[in-house]
Amino acid sequence: MPENDEHDPLDSWLDEQVRPLMPPSGTFELIARRARRRKVRRLVISVASAVAVAAAVAVAVPGVTALHLTTPGETGNAVAEGRATSSAGGKLGGGTQGVTGTGTQSATPIPPASAPTSAPASPPASTPVPASTGGPYAGPVPANFAPTSVTFTSASNAWVIGQAGTPGDCYSGKICTSVAWTSDDGATWHGEHAPVTGAPSGPTGVSGIRFLDGVNGWAFGPELWVTHDSGNSWQQISTDGQRVTGLETVDGRAYAVFATCSGTSSSGFAADCTSYTLMTSTATSDDWAPVGAATSDIPGEGGTSSAMIQLTGTNGYLIAPDGTVYSGPIGGTWSNVGTAPCGAGSPQASGLPKYGMIAVSSPGTVAVACYSGSVRTASPWVSISTDGGSTWSLYSASAWSGTSVAESSMTSLTAAPNGTLVLGTTSGIYVLPSGSSVWKAAVSSGSPAGGFSYVGMTSDTQGVALPADSSLGEIWLTTDGGLTWTPSRVTG
Fold first, then answer.
1. What is the 3-state secondary structure (H, E, C) of 17-37?
2. 3-state secondary structure of 102
3. How far is CA 27 from CA 31, 33, 338, 390, 400, in A?
4. Are residues 437 and 395 in contact, defined by beta-carbon separation less than 8 angstroms?
5. Which residues contact 252 (CB under 8 A, 6 or more apart)?
6. What domains are defined for the chain?
7. Which residues, 6+ apart, have CB-to-CB distance to 47 below 8 Å?
8. N or C end: fewer C-beta atoms under 10 angstroms in the chain?
9. pLDDT computed for residue 244 by the predictor
10. Of 270, 129, 275, nearest to 205 (Cα)?
11. In degrees, to the nearest 5, what angle opens at C-alpha 467 toward C-alphas 463 and 472?
12. If residue 76 lies in a helix (H) or strand (E), which one and from where to where?
């Protein structure tokens, strides 16, 4: 039998070396082209996914978050925990922004005109207010607006600040502080964003407002807040625990009285103050510095005193608790220039003194309103200085004939540039026209209950007053030098 008969022919075939056949021509080039196409498809998909994610983020996180869309409790905590400390050189500033991130936004914006919490109502989250709108936000005026302070930047443009919403419902973290503005001398009003803080309560809250030019403004009393975009956003400024009891603006600057106080009531944020320092800041800066050594750490009088500032276009005046009058150029150092017939007395709820109020009609003409006698409930009287506070002349008692001002309490004193004096009292408004020697009752029998808490003249003819009862929701205006007044209701 042949030798290979012992093996299966199939086994012999499998034992042979296998030589693979070559693929058809062009196969390798086809595979390479398909691989390149797969890589391109993956890249396109990756880019498209990244674009989709970026678009989703852009929708979820707007560039500028509208104020008052955060819950009051969260925003308040963010402000309290983020206060900056004073910077070097005795300056204060660098406050925290009163807006938190989108992660703390409410599910729905505050409804217009009836919100008991943060008011005025903010625009919807889908239409945030940009920082450079070129003007104030024209939203609805919240219901029950109760203005506590007013500021004019021109004959027709004004801002007011106060509390709004449902009376008695501003508690447990709810914020009712509101701002409104007018551009037609009170004929119409619009809601504006407000500092995210409450009414005055000891060292917290705000009650006053001053604008320098319609763009840069400050809310104060006792906290200090600033806006540099017409009120569209507000930032809290650190005061190192001091309270701002007064603030005025002129010629690119703001001046404020920083006080060390311990008063705890809502009507006494400026009470129990032991020292006062005059501070200043430029319009666009958030740093505050002392005006000078003479107006720093001015002592109070047993915590029952206050201090008051008034400014002209070129200089300013401060009256201290002991009657010392300080004055100096805007932007310069102030010094002791004399002693007034009385010092700045105990503070009112507005922060203004009950007596020792000063008013300035021109750079060298200053008036001070005092009470006669040691008992501060007697008839008021006014002294005038025409030499910048060095010497004073008393108006005779006959100047008050025909008025009931002797039976009331003074609340505010102002002077028009022409020298007209206007006095706000708990019984009405009284005017001493320029060149006259007799006060006239401008608003008495028809005045609101409690009279007026503030009067101010913006020109020889135009002026503004605030009723003591802020719940009336009014400001009063004059266009004839204070002789007649008409109310304007802050509503939209």
1. CCCCCCCCCCHHHHHHHHHHH
2. helix
3. 6, 10, 105, 107, 114
4. yes
5. 212, 282, 283
6. 66-241 (no CATH), 410-492 (2.40.10.500)
7. none
8. N
9. 98
10. 270
11. 120
12. helix 72-81
Residue 389, Ramachandran bin (φ over 0: left; ψ between -120 and 50: alpha; else beta) = left
Pull the structure tokens for residue 363.
Answer: 């750079």
Report the C-alpha gap between 372 and 389 in whole angstroms.
Answer: 20
The alpha-helical segments, DSSP class H, found in 119-256 are none
Q: Which two tokens stand for residue 446?
A: 């028809």
- Mean pLDDT of the region 424-444: 87
R_g (Cα) of the chain, nearest Å: 34
Q: In whole angstroms, what is the distance from residue 55 CA to residue 365 CA?
A: 63
Distance CA 430, CA 400 (A): 10
What's the CA gap between 257 and 407, in Å, rounded? 31
For residue 454, give both structure tokens: 């503030």
- Where in 223-354 does DSSP place strands (E)? 224-227, 235-236, 243-250, 253-261, 273-282, 289-290, 298-299, 308-311, 315-319, 324-329, 335-339
**Does position 365 have pLDDT exceeding 80, yes or no?**
yes
Q: Tell me how far CA of residue 248 lies from CA of 6, 63, 169, 308, 370, in angstroms.
A: 121, 33, 31, 10, 22
Range with lowest mean pLDDT among 160-174, 184-198, 223-237, 304-318: 160-174
What is the residue whose two structure tokens read 């311990």? Answer: 262
Distance CA 317, CA 445 (A): 34
